[in-house]
Amino acid sequence: MTLLGTFILPLTSYLCFRILNKNSIPEIAGILSLFFLFLEQYTIYGGNIPSTLAGEFSYSFSFSLFWLFIALMKKGTEENRHLILNTLLLSLMILSHPIPVMVSLVVMPFFLFLNFKKNLFYIIKVYVLAFIFTSWWSFPFLFYLDYSSPMVWKKFIRVSDIFPLSLVPLKIFALVSAVYGFLKRDKSIMLLLFIGVINLFFYLLLDNSKIWNTRFLPFFTMSCILMSAYFIGIILKNMKYNFFFLLLIAIGSILFINSKLKFIPFWIKWNYEGFERKQAWGEAKALFDYLRILPFGRVMWEYTPEYGKFGTPRVLELIPMFSGKPTVEGLLIESALSAPFHFIIQAETTFTPTTPNFGFRYPSFNMKKAVEHMRFMGIRYFIAYTDEVKKEANKVLPKIGNVGSFSIYEIPQVKLIEPLSDFQVQKKTHNWKIQAFEWFLKGELKKPIIFSEFSEIDMKKPNNKAIRCQLIKFDNKEILFYTEGIGIPHIVKVSYFPKWKVKGGKGPYLTTPSFMVIIPEKEFVTLIWK
């Protein structure tokens, strides 16, 4: 399934051309799409094989459908047909990845320019129906978007990415095709040109945005390839023995692409042969086995690219699967509400942090500060791998075990649920996330902010007497705990989300940095995900 988008791009390119222009040779589009698929210069932008191998497989699937959708939209607006088919294609794109959907929206003015009144109604019907078909997913996505992490991307531009050397001949053909399209007023070429220009515009100008500008570059590159295929097809269509020349193009393209391959074959083998076949897997498995026998607790680790020898630098995200212990990082971590605070701690515990773009300056390495943050975030175990980090961890944490090159430490006095000894109550405003960032970075951990309409006198603060609080059950669907602190706010160190519902108490209320606060009304309190 992860390679489905890769496999269908030649097919959707072929169908795109067959729909756009019957005077061309659509097979050329399918053949030349291989130049994009095997382009090794884009390793994360999306659409091609390296990007898919890096994890952008949903983008690749939606990207492949985009070209068929655009061609059918042109045909549909001209003939007032294919409403259901276009709606289904758009629905699949929506459920796969939002970027191609956004690009499709900015392409729609092209059809409005051709015939505003007629095409506007058709476009509205397609997009409204697609939204209705996907409303079970898209409506909650939009409604709860505020409870995801804000991303702020700086633009990344390289001329060599705009004009990869291996694609220069095709870009020249694309330029000739654009001139031909203007002279002949060919709507199909003009459509592809519009797609290319508008996406190049986003790539060059988008900055400090929630969307990385490089996500639009594959559309520019692919539109150039299709424009070149369009013009080459027109030339071959008027030649005798065009099948022979088509065969030469296919063979020549395959030989040329194969001569340029450097790492794709190795990466495919590395990704799909499985973790167990990696030479170093035994060490990772031994770590998982060791963690399995430890008492329950959340796990964090030093990040280092050296983990790549186990199969991926993100191999320790498999801890829940192989050891049953919860962690602070997983597949979709960057979108989680708690993500910025996790990556702040990561920056404090590693000399090679990943530092995703959340719009603030990350702190430098500081293990002492990290221990305070990990304790507050409910992290019980910390795993170090490099000698430099082990040296610093040994100064502030008790080591409980060694497994190969891994050292495991335990943070003392960690609780996933506990009564708050002090807090402040503030009204939730539109900039509550910025407040949470500033609060966390300043180290004001002893006095969390509860975002609520309640005044401070409505929430009791405990006296100096210790309050017994015990966690009974903790998983993704249900959290159960016992407490003697009835009426006293308890912090639950799990990301806040409106779908959490409380039995036996009030709440949950959003609190800094990204957690929940419950006010127990009974000794046994249950949080259920609904």
UniProtKB/TrEMBL annotation:
Keyword check for Transmembrane: yes
Cited Pfam families: PTPS_related
Key words, A-Z: Membrane, Transmembrane, Transmembrane helix
Transmembrane stretches, start-end: 28-45, 57-73, 85-114, 120-145, 165-183, 189-206, 218-236, 242-259
Source organism of this protein record: Thermodesulfobacterium geofontis
Protein name per Swiss-Prot or TrEMBL: Membrane protein 6-pyruvoyl-tetrahydropterin synthase-related domain-containing protein
UniProt xrefs under InterPro entries: Membrane_prot_PTPS-rel_domain
Phylogenetic lineage: Bacteria, Pseudomonadati, Thermodesulfobacteriota, Thermodesulfobacteria, Thermodesulfobacteriales
Tree of life domain: Bacteria
The Membrane protein 6-pyruvoyl-tetrahydropterin synthase-related domain, residue ranges: 2-350
